[in-house]
Design a protein that fits this description.
CATH topology of one domain: Rossmann fold
Number of strands: 6
Structural class: alpha/beta
Strand content: 5-15%
Number of helices: 8
Shape: globular
Largest sheet: 6 strands, mixed
Length: about 250
Amino acid sequence: MPQLVLLRHGQSLWNAENLFTGWYDVDLTPQGEEEARAAGELLAGDPDLDLRVVHTSVLTRAIRTANLTLDVAGRSWLPVARHWRLNERHYGALQGLNKKETTARHGEVQVKEWRRSYDSPPPPVERGDAHDPAGDPRYRDVPADALPLTECLADVVARVVPYWADAIVPDLLAEGRRGGAVLVVAHGNSLRALRKHIEGIGDDEIVDLEIPTGIPYRYVMADDLSVISHGFLGDTAAAEAAAEAVRRQAG
């Protein structure tokens, strides 16, 4: 049966400072590095999990999380695919702002709508702004009109689902592979988008889904990729507490 493991990167520098990060490229904190290693221990300790291939975004925090996790899991040799479609949601003009200060300025209702509503993006950045990805060499082969200046979750779903269909699904269903699992290391909102698609979560319900850093989430699937079971590896209560901490970040 196909297995899929979703892993949000470990705590980043801007996570620690409670800033909207989005496509801005920041590294992991020491705590984030430890979270990545702990995830590797969970993956290595599960006898039913046989990782075969990895997908990450093109942002440093996801790449380093994947590397540290695979080192500890004893799978540093696995093939890895990276793609911008797995990037975090682009937070537009909110990128670099403190979440609680933004709530104090604009109000809890407005910030919750920007952060967690399905179809309300924050204000965009201007083309040529420091947070415009068009000048970044990692996106030089991406059509300029495909690079966002802001995104809501619906926009993230629209860019992630094609990658799911074109790249991840073929790895889950690869002929000749006896068992095995696919690991996706990405970000809070790109993983929310995947979970929405895989689990059929409604537009209203997805508002309440939070993804904690550094804790693997596994699906066991049938051959048609319908979900047989899913849940966090390790201490479920600790994972739920970590998700609640994400929920409180904006105050």
